[in-house]
Protein backbone atom coordinates (compact mmCIF):
# COMPACT_ATOMS: atom_id res chain seq x y z
CA UNK A 1 0.00 0.00 0.00
CA UNK A 2 1.17 3.52 -0.76
CA UNK A 3 -0.07 6.98 0.08
CA UNK A 4 -3.72 7.93 -0.33
CA UNK A 5 -5.45 11.32 -0.37
CA UNK A 6 -8.07 12.24 2.18
CA UNK A 7 -10.71 12.70 -0.52
CA UNK A 8 -10.21 9.09 -1.61
CA UNK A 9 -10.31 7.83 1.98
CA UNK A 10 -13.68 9.53 2.38
CA UNK A 11 -15.00 8.16 -0.91
CA UNK A 12 -13.88 4.61 -0.18
CA UNK A 13 -15.35 4.77 3.33
CA UNK A 14 -18.73 5.83 1.92
CA UNK A 15 -18.59 3.13 -0.75
CA UNK A 16 -17.75 0.53 1.89
CA UNK A 17 -20.84 1.50 3.89
CA UNK A 18 -23.13 0.91 0.94
CA UNK A 19 -23.72 4.53 -0.01
CA UNK A 20 -24.82 4.77 -3.65
CA UNK A 21 -25.94 8.33 -4.35
CA UNK A 22 -24.38 11.75 -3.77
CA UNK A 23 -26.12 15.03 -4.58
CA UNK A 24 -24.24 18.28 -4.38
CA UNK A 25 -22.44 21.28 -5.81
CA UNK A 26 -18.69 21.33 -6.28
CA UNK A 27 -16.49 24.20 -5.19
CA UNK A 28 -13.83 25.01 -2.62
CA UNK A 29 -12.84 22.70 -0.96
CA UNK A 30 -14.83 19.67 -2.22
CA UNK A 31 -14.02 19.51 -5.94
CA UNK A 32 -11.56 16.66 -5.40
CA UNK A 33 -14.03 14.93 -3.07
CA UNK A 34 -16.66 14.76 -5.81
CA UNK A 35 -14.05 13.45 -8.26
CA UNK A 36 -12.90 10.78 -5.80
CA UNK A 37 -16.50 9.72 -5.18
CA UNK A 38 -17.07 9.16 -8.88
CA UNK A 39 -13.75 7.35 -9.21
CA UNK A 40 -14.83 4.68 -6.69
CA UNK A 41 -18.22 4.20 -8.34
CA UNK A 42 -20.58 6.44 -6.38
CA UNK A 43 -23.35 8.04 -8.44
CA UNK A 44 -22.75 11.79 -8.20
CA UNK A 45 -25.61 14.06 -9.29
CA UNK A 46 -24.70 17.72 -9.66
CA UNK A 47 -27.39 20.15 -8.50
CA UNK A 48 -27.85 23.91 -8.80
CA UNK A 49 -28.50 24.64 -5.14
CA UNK A 50 -27.58 22.88 -1.92
CA UNK A 51 -31.14 23.14 -0.65
CA UNK A 52 -32.35 21.13 -3.63
CA UNK A 53 -29.45 18.71 -3.15
CA UNK A 54 -30.41 18.12 0.48
CA UNK A 55 -34.04 17.47 -0.47
CA UNK A 56 -33.03 15.06 -3.25
CA UNK A 57 -30.66 13.13 -1.00
CA UNK A 58 -33.26 12.88 1.76
CA UNK A 59 -35.78 11.53 -0.76
CA UNK A 60 -33.43 8.61 -1.41
CA UNK A 61 -33.46 7.90 2.32
CA UNK A 62 -37.24 8.03 2.39
CA UNK A 63 -37.63 5.68 -0.56
CA UNK A 64 -34.91 3.15 0.30
CA UNK A 65 -34.44 3.34 4.07
CA UNK A 66 -30.70 3.90 3.51
CA UNK A 67 -29.02 7.32 3.49
CA UNK A 68 -27.73 9.19 0.48
CA UNK A 69 -25.17 11.99 0.76
CA UNK A 70 -25.55 15.71 0.27
CA UNK A 71 -22.15 17.27 -0.48
CA UNK A 72 -21.71 21.00 0.13
CA UNK A 73 -19.03 23.66 -0.05
CA UNK A 74 -18.14 25.61 3.07
CA UNK A 75 -20.14 28.42 4.64
CA UNK A 76 -23.21 29.36 2.56
CA UNK A 77 -23.26 25.96 0.87
CA UNK A 78 -23.63 24.14 4.15
CA UNK A 79 -26.15 26.72 5.40
CA UNK A 80 -28.34 26.19 2.34
CA UNK A 81 -28.46 22.46 3.09
CA UNK A 82 -29.92 23.05 6.55
CA UNK A 83 -33.43 23.29 5.06
CA UNK A 84 -33.27 19.70 3.86
CA UNK A 85 -31.59 18.60 7.07
CA UNK A 86 -34.40 20.00 9.21
CA UNK A 87 -37.02 18.50 6.90
CA UNK A 88 -35.39 15.06 7.00
CA UNK A 89 -35.08 15.12 10.79
CA UNK A 90 -38.75 15.96 11.29
CA UNK A 91 -39.81 13.30 8.78
CA UNK A 92 -37.42 10.63 10.13
CA UNK A 93 -35.53 10.21 6.85
CA UNK A 94 -31.92 8.97 6.92
CA UNK A 95 -29.53 11.51 5.39
CA UNK A 96 -25.81 12.24 5.54
CA UNK A 97 -24.54 15.73 4.84
CA UNK A 98 -20.83 16.21 4.19
CA UNK A 99 -19.64 19.78 4.27
CA UNK A 100 -16.26 21.05 3.22
CA UNK A 101 -14.87 23.60 5.66
CA UNK A 102 -11.94 25.93 6.26
CA UNK A 103 -8.49 24.46 6.77
CA UNK A 104 -7.75 23.68 10.40
CA UNK A 105 -4.76 26.03 10.51
CA UNK A 106 -7.00 28.92 9.44
CA UNK A 107 -9.58 28.56 12.20
CA UNK A 108 -10.84 31.86 13.66
CA UNK A 109 -8.71 33.89 11.22
CA UNK A 110 -11.43 34.94 8.80
CA UNK A 111 -10.77 32.13 6.34
CA UNK A 112 -12.71 31.82 3.08
CA UNK A 113 -16.39 31.25 3.94
CA UNK A 114 -15.41 30.28 7.49
CA UNK A 115 -18.43 29.29 9.57
CA UNK A 116 -19.03 27.14 12.69
CA UNK A 117 -20.61 24.37 10.66
CA UNK A 118 -20.55 21.55 13.20
CA UNK A 119 -22.21 23.75 15.79
CA UNK A 120 -24.83 24.93 13.28
CA UNK A 121 -25.63 21.35 12.27
CA UNK A 122 -26.22 20.02 15.77
CA UNK A 123 -29.75 21.39 16.10
CA UNK A 124 -30.83 19.54 12.97
CA UNK A 125 -28.96 16.24 13.31
CA UNK A 126 -28.62 13.14 15.42
CA UNK A 127 -24.84 13.37 15.11
CA UNK A 128 -22.48 16.10 13.89
CA UNK A 129 -18.69 15.88 14.04
CA UNK A 130 -15.38 16.70 12.40
CA UNK A 131 -12.95 13.76 12.04
CA UNK A 132 -9.87 14.06 14.21
CA UNK A 133 -7.59 12.90 11.39
CA UNK A 134 -7.68 11.68 7.81
CA UNK A 135 -6.92 8.15 9.00
CA UNK A 136 -10.04 8.14 11.19
CA UNK A 137 -12.50 9.34 8.55
CA UNK A 138 -13.92 5.80 8.04
CA UNK A 139 -14.82 5.63 11.75
CA UNK A 140 -16.90 8.80 11.48
CA UNK A 141 -18.52 7.67 8.24
CA UNK A 142 -19.62 4.34 9.72
CA UNK A 143 -20.98 6.05 12.82
CA UNK A 144 -22.91 8.54 10.70
CA UNK A 145 -24.46 5.79 8.58
CA UNK A 146 -25.34 3.72 11.63
CA UNK A 147 -26.90 6.59 13.55
CA UNK A 148 -28.88 7.72 10.52
CA UNK A 149 -30.74 4.40 10.30
CA UNK A 150 -30.76 3.04 13.88
CA UNK A 151 -33.67 3.92 16.15
CA UNK A 152 -35.60 6.85 14.76
CA UNK A 153 -33.97 7.58 11.36
CA UNK A 154 -32.49 11.02 10.88
CA UNK A 155 -29.63 13.21 9.74
CA UNK A 156 -25.90 13.05 10.42
CA UNK A 157 -23.30 15.66 9.48
CA UNK A 158 -19.58 15.18 8.80
CA UNK A 159 -17.33 18.23 8.52
CA UNK A 160 -14.27 17.84 6.28
CA UNK A 161 -11.56 20.53 6.63
CA UNK A 162 -10.00 21.68 3.39
CA UNK A 163 -6.55 20.47 4.42
CA UNK A 164 -7.91 16.92 4.80
CA UNK A 165 -9.01 16.74 1.17
CA UNK A 166 -5.60 16.67 -0.50
CA UNK A 167 -3.53 15.52 2.47
CA UNK A 168 -1.80 12.21 1.87
CA UNK A 169 -1.48 9.47 4.47
CA UNK A 170 -0.19 5.93 4.35
CA UNK A 171 -3.15 3.74 3.48
CA UNK A 172 -1.89 1.00 5.78
CA UNK A 173 -2.72 3.35 8.65
CA UNK A 174 -6.33 3.75 7.49
CA UNK A 175 -8.76 1.29 9.05
CA UNK A 176 -11.87 0.86 6.92
CA UNK A 177 -14.83 -0.17 9.05
CA UNK A 178 -16.99 -3.16 7.95
CA UNK A 179 -20.41 -2.24 6.54
CA UNK A 180 -22.96 -1.19 9.11
CA UNK A 181 -25.52 -4.02 9.53
CA UNK A 182 -29.25 -3.35 9.23
CA UNK A 183 -30.92 -2.03 12.39
CA UNK A 184 -31.73 -4.77 14.90
CA UNK A 185 -35.36 -5.81 15.19
CA UNK A 186 -36.91 -5.42 18.61
CA UNK A 187 -40.04 -6.98 20.04
CA UNK A 188 -42.34 -6.01 22.88
CA UNK A 189 -42.57 -8.29 25.95
CA UNK A 190 -45.00 -11.20 25.62
CA UNK A 191 -47.36 -9.85 28.28
CA UNK A 192 -47.72 -6.54 26.46
CA UNK A 193 -48.39 -8.34 23.18
CA UNK A 194 -51.10 -10.42 24.89
CA UNK A 195 -52.74 -7.29 26.29
CA UNK A 196 -52.73 -5.71 22.84
CA UNK A 197 -54.26 -8.82 21.28
CA UNK A 198 -56.98 -8.93 23.93
CA UNK A 199 -57.82 -5.26 23.39
CA UNK A 200 -58.19 -5.79 19.65
CA UNK A 201 -60.17 -9.03 20.02
CA UNK A 202 -62.76 -7.47 22.30
CA UNK A 203 -62.94 -4.09 20.59
CA UNK A 204 -66.27 -3.08 19.09
CA UNK A 205 -64.78 -0.76 16.47
CA UNK A 206 -61.08 -1.50 16.06
CA UNK A 207 -58.95 0.43 13.58
CA UNK A 208 -55.43 -0.10 12.25
CA UNK A 209 -53.52 3.06 11.31
CA UNK A 210 -50.53 2.44 9.04
CA UNK A 211 -47.69 4.96 9.36
CA UNK A 212 -44.53 5.37 7.32
CA UNK A 213 -42.56 3.42 9.92
CA UNK A 214 -44.33 0.29 8.74
CA UNK A 215 -42.91 0.98 5.31
CA UNK A 216 -39.41 1.42 6.72
CA UNK A 217 -39.78 -1.95 8.41
CA UNK A 218 -40.72 -3.53 5.06
CA UNK A 219 -43.53 -5.44 6.72
CA UNK A 220 -46.06 -5.29 3.89
CA UNK A 221 -46.74 -9.03 4.07
CA UNK A 222 -47.23 -8.99 7.84
CA UNK A 223 -49.55 -5.99 7.72
CA UNK A 224 -51.64 -7.57 4.97
CA UNK A 225 -51.85 -10.83 6.91
CA UNK A 226 -52.98 -8.97 10.03
CA UNK A 227 -55.55 -6.81 8.27
CA UNK A 228 -56.98 -9.42 5.91
CA UNK A 229 -56.77 -12.36 8.31
CA UNK A 230 -58.46 -10.45 11.12
CA UNK A 231 -60.71 -8.38 8.86
CA UNK A 232 -59.58 -5.16 10.53
CA UNK A 233 -60.41 -1.83 8.89
CA UNK A 234 -57.29 0.21 8.21
CA UNK A 235 -56.36 3.81 7.53
CA UNK A 236 -53.02 4.75 5.94
CA UNK A 237 -51.39 8.04 6.87
CA UNK A 238 -50.30 10.18 3.89
CA UNK A 239 -46.79 8.70 4.07
CA UNK A 240 -48.02 5.24 5.01
CA UNK A 241 -49.75 4.70 1.69
CA UNK A 242 -48.64 1.87 -0.54
CA UNK A 243 -48.35 -1.02 1.90
CA UNK A 244 -51.94 -1.90 1.07
CA UNK A 245 -53.89 -0.51 -1.89
CA UNK A 246 -56.29 2.36 -1.25
CA UNK A 247 -58.99 0.47 -3.14
CA UNK A 248 -58.79 -2.43 -0.66
CA UNK A 249 -62.29 -3.17 0.71
CA UNK A 250 -61.03 -2.75 4.29
CA UNK A 251 -59.52 0.69 3.64
CA UNK A 252 -61.57 3.40 5.37
CA UNK A 253 -59.67 6.40 3.97
CA UNK A 254 -62.80 7.80 2.26
CA UNK A 255 -64.46 7.96 5.71
CA UNK A 256 -61.33 9.01 7.62
CA UNK A 257 -62.96 11.42 10.10
CA UNK A 258 -65.75 9.04 11.07
CA UNK A 259 -63.35 6.11 11.40
CA UNK A 260 -61.14 8.07 13.80
CA UNK A 261 -64.08 9.36 15.84
CA UNK A 262 -65.75 5.95 16.17
CA UNK A 263 -62.74 3.71 16.90
CA UNK A 264 -62.56 2.41 20.46
CA UNK A 265 -59.21 0.61 19.97
CA UNK A 266 -56.54 1.79 17.54
CA UNK A 267 -53.43 -0.14 16.52
CA UNK A 268 -50.93 2.49 15.37
CA UNK A 269 -48.17 0.91 13.27
CA UNK A 270 -45.10 3.06 12.74
CA UNK A 271 -46.88 6.37 13.14
CA UNK A 272 -46.71 9.27 15.57
CA UNK A 273 -49.52 11.09 17.34
CA UNK A 274 -48.56 14.43 15.86
CA UNK A 275 -50.55 16.90 13.77
CA UNK A 276 -51.13 14.32 11.02
CA UNK A 277 -53.29 12.36 13.48
CA UNK A 278 -54.62 15.40 15.35
CA UNK A 279 -52.44 14.48 18.37
CA UNK A 280 -54.78 11.57 19.10
CA UNK A 281 -57.04 13.96 20.99
CA UNK A 282 -60.77 14.80 21.02
CA UNK A 283 -62.84 15.82 19.15
CA UNK A 284 -61.17 13.92 16.28
CA UNK A 285 -60.76 10.87 18.56
CA UNK A 286 -62.96 9.40 21.25
CA UNK A 287 -61.96 10.53 24.71
CA UNK A 288 -61.86 6.90 25.90
CA UNK A 289 -60.06 5.43 22.88
CA UNK A 290 -57.25 2.99 23.62
CA UNK A 291 -54.22 3.39 21.33
CA UNK A 292 -51.67 0.59 20.92
CA UNK A 293 -48.47 2.09 19.55
CA UNK A 294 -45.89 0.02 17.66
CA UNK A 295 -42.67 1.89 16.90
CA UNK A 296 -38.92 1.31 16.77
CA UNK A 297 -38.17 4.46 18.77
CA UNK A 298 -39.29 4.84 22.38
CA UNK A 299 -39.41 8.63 22.21
CA UNK A 300 -42.06 8.39 19.50
CA UNK A 301 -44.31 6.49 21.94
CA UNK A 302 -44.34 9.28 24.50
CA UNK A 303 -46.19 11.94 22.52
CA UNK A 304 -49.12 13.29 24.50
CA UNK A 305 -52.72 12.85 23.38
CA UNK A 306 -53.36 16.45 24.40
CA UNK A 307 -53.79 18.98 21.64
CA UNK A 308 -51.61 22.07 21.32
Strand content: 15-25%
The number of helical runs is 11
How large, in whole angstroms, is the Cα Rg? 23 Å
Mean residue pLDDT = 91
Share of helix, binned = 25-40%
Structural class: alpha/beta
Low-confidence stretches: none
Spatial ordering of strands, largest sheet = 3-2-4-5-7-6
- Quaternary structure annotation: single chain
Secondary-structure element series: EHEHEHEHEHEHEHEHEHHEHEE
Number of strands: 12
What kind of sheet is the major sheet?
6 strands, parallel
Give a concise summary.
With 308 residues, the chain is of the alpha/beta class. 35% of the residues lie in helices and 17% in strands.
What does this entry look like structurally?
- There is one protein chain.
- This protein has 308 residues and is α/β, with parallel strands linked by helices.
- 35% of the residues lie in helices and 17% in strands.
- The chain has helices at 6-16, 31-39, 50-64, 76-91, 117-121, 137-149, 162-166, 190-201, 212-216, 220-230, 256-262; strands at residues 3-5, 21-24, 43-46, 69-72, 95-101, 127-129, 155-161, 168-170, 206-210, 234-236, 265-269, 290-294.
- Helix 1 (6-16) crosses helix 2 (31-39), helix 1 packs parallel to helix 6 (137-149) and helix 3 runs parallel beside helix 4 (76-91).
- The longest helix is centred in the first third of the chain and has 16 residues, at 76-91.
- The protein starts with a strand and ends in a 14-residue tail after the last strand.
- The mean pLDDT is 91.
